[in-house]
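chain below, 443 aa
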Amino acid sequence: MSERETWATRAGFILAAVGSAVGLGNIWQFPFKTAQFGGSSFLVVYLIAVLGIGLPAILAEFVIGRKANLNTIDAFEKLGYRNWRIVGVLGLATGFWILSYYSVVGGWVLRYIAGSLTGAYFGDPAAYFGQVSAGMDALVLHAVFMALVIGIVALGIEDGIEKATKLMVPSIVVILIALAVWAFTLPGAGEGYAYFLSPNFDALTANFTEIVPFAVGQAFFSLSLGMGAMITYASYIDGDESLFSDSLTIVVLNTFVGVLAGLVVLPLLFAQGIDPNTSGAGAVFVSVATAFAELPAGNILGFFFFVVVLVAALSSAISLLEVVVSWAVDNTSYSRPVIATGLGSVIFALGIPSAWDTAWLTWFDTLAYQLLLPLSVLGILVFVGWVYGRPALAELLKGSNAGEGLGLTWLWTARTVVIAGVVGTLILGFQTLFVGGAIVPPF
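prediction:
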């Protein structure tokens, strides 16, 4: 086993964690989930979930990772709880599962970057998406995207992931802000802002049981929780920086980018008279492409938008691959490049059904949202809150000016309110999966 790497700077860790969080979950998933579930109704529940469940949960993952300085599986054994390694296995498997279809969507983005410059999708965006989202074209681009991810992870923590995310994250924010300012100038954009930002409590009440599991799942997905990513990234911390301030910074920046993406996408759709209340993995691609096709200089605007989506996709994908690579680096004598290539290839193979048929991608995504992510987060919260307990509190307070009172508030919130919220989300998710029949693969 080689010597374990660490982050070169605290900023590198924060930006890498933000990069993991700020991914397709924010720019691909968030706008179309918001549109699908009633705009502001979804946004309200999502913000509550991020602050009330996401923030305590990310602190729990950071505590495990920094204390153990090991991968998401072996961390539990090092802390003295070998039987709880199953929670780490579930997190690693969840990240493995998600990256397999996430990479397919990353391939779509590559195609849309080229399509923006050539105007390939301008004639019929819906037909264009149908052509490129499944089949051999999607499979090849899935392979190209995974090769990019493998290349970055193979370079290591400091030379690969840290340097890449230091460039990626600021680029995402700058370009999104510029696009949001431009969207503000569009005639009719005000309807998009109203749909996105004016709470509709009647819609929330009427669709509560459907909105909640997806909003909480979106919080987990967009914060990279339950995938082993935050445990793994925290394991490379070399020092006792404040986990409180780091977590809050990551959550705020992640949420800011998600809302910023909504301030770009939804005003853009309303300005062009496009119904945002569509569902399915391709909703944003078709709707946004339709809007760009109808705008002056739409090819340039589309190019910059999809470049942002690509950078965000890469920053998250490298964190998911790093979860499994970290475990292999800690437990084998193989070099990081060999491990990254081998495991990345297996993930590519798992994603072949999603690349061949979008029905499989939707099935993979539904299981991740409604079963794997909440189940994995629940395991982490039960372990930190009720099993590890006091040592977790002591680790959390290292390097922090916060008093024990704030730490105890976090611990008891994680033990009670947060666990109850995750259990409720799982119950609602089970109803969709098993009663609604979504658990059945699309053979």
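The first helix runs from residue 10 to 21. The two ends are 42 Å apart (CA to CA).
thats it, cya
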